[in-house]
Amino acid sequence: MRKWRRPARTVRLRFTVLYGAMFLLSGVGLLVITNLVGLGGTRTSRSAPSGTPPVEPATLAAANDRIAWLQTQLSDTHAAQSRQLLIGSAVALVVMGAVSVILGRVVAGRVLRPLRMITAATRRISADNLHERLAAQGPADEVKDLADTIDELLERLESSFAAQRRFVANASHELRTPLATMRASLDVALAKPEPVPQQTAALADRLRTELDQVDRLLEDFLVLARTQHGALADRTTLSLRRLVTVALGARAADITTKNLTVHSTDAVDDSAWAQGNRTLLTRMIDNIIDNAITHNQPGGWIRLATTTDGTTAQLVVETGGRVLDQEQVDRLAQPFQRLGADRTHSGNGSGLGLSIVTAIAAAHGGALDLRARPEGGLRVAVSLPLAAVPAEVPA
């Protein structure tokens, strides 16, 4: 037996109740007035009219009996008519009450239709399609004023987002010039014929390492700005398993250095294909694999799987480790968020890896899901719209 649920208290429901209650109150008042007037008009006088000529006693008694019988019949007739009027009025009130509720709901729906359209259009608009507008049509009333105000707000938000992305892209691009200059200056200083002091060489190596880290950070900024900027170009159909295989092969030395064991549960299945930009999808999977290697303990393990469910292609990467807090894991998709050096065993990383994964997945119509494994470690799953396997699969 299904449990009865109270309907949501919407504006349309309140309008319907208000219209129905107003009609019922006015109908009850009209019926009361009608019945009072009707009852007042049916009162009859029992007194004999003046100027009646005298009648014989026997005839007068018979006439009085006749009058009493007629008055009884008339009273019964009026009582029956009153009951019929009352019953008919009650039935009419019930019927019209139901009709008023239905009409009230229809009228309330028509009145609130523009608001529902504005709500649905506003929900469709996100940070990726701020260029869309409500563009409400109709008379210049309160509803159109509300729609125009939302359009102005969206325009300001679009300008703000565009300015932020341009700033990140321009700043990242412009900062590359002084970095290249500093790197060239180090190379020139170390290339002099006279011997370089050991401390100077060590300092130069450290500076070069830091410059490489800053360069990677700027590259991450550029990728993040490009991904969040809008439409993707050069879309092609790619196999997630093959991208994972390439990424693992490129990082074989790092896996060996950390003595990590890689488990793959999809050695044969190659049905997880997605359509998108090759550079960005490759960067997305590289970041996921880098995260699994860097934030792993020596001698640990990595489990990879690519699956499909008919509509989406999914890549799942799991790693072992200590038990993590899910609230902290949820923040990893935001820029510059880490779980701490006690988990990473390394100070490397800019904190942008998973935020770039989130942006790339969202730009391709997918999503990133991060879960703390109950037995310890992290589960990273990225889902993308499933693409058909090409007729001629490249080697």
From TrEMBL:
Domain of life: Bacteria
Regions crossing the membrane: 12-33, 85-108
Keyword annotations of the record: Kinase, Membrane, Phosphoprotein, Transferase, Transmembrane, Transmembrane helix, Two-component regulatory system
SUPFAM superfamilies: ATPase domain of HSP90 chaperone/DNA topoisomerase II/histidine kinase, HAMP domain-like, Homodimeric domain of signal transducing histidine kinase
Residues covered by the Histidine kinase domain: 170-388
CDD domains tied to this protein: HAMP, HATPase, HisKA
Subcellular location, record wording: Cell membrane
InterPro entries: HAMP_dom, HATPase_C_sf, HATPase_dom, His_kinase_dom, HisK_dim/P_dom, HisK_dim/P_sf, Sig_transdc_His_kin-like_C, TCS_sensor_his_kinase
Cross-referenced Pfam families: HAMP, HATPase_c, HisKA
Catalysed conversion reaction: ATP + protein L-histidine = ADP + protein N-phospho-L-histidine
The HAMP domain, residue ranges: 109-162
The protein's Enzyme Commission number: 2.7.13.3
One example GO MF annotation: kinase activity
Name of the protein in its database record: histidine kinase
The species this protein was found in: Streptosporangium amethystogenes subsp. fukuiense
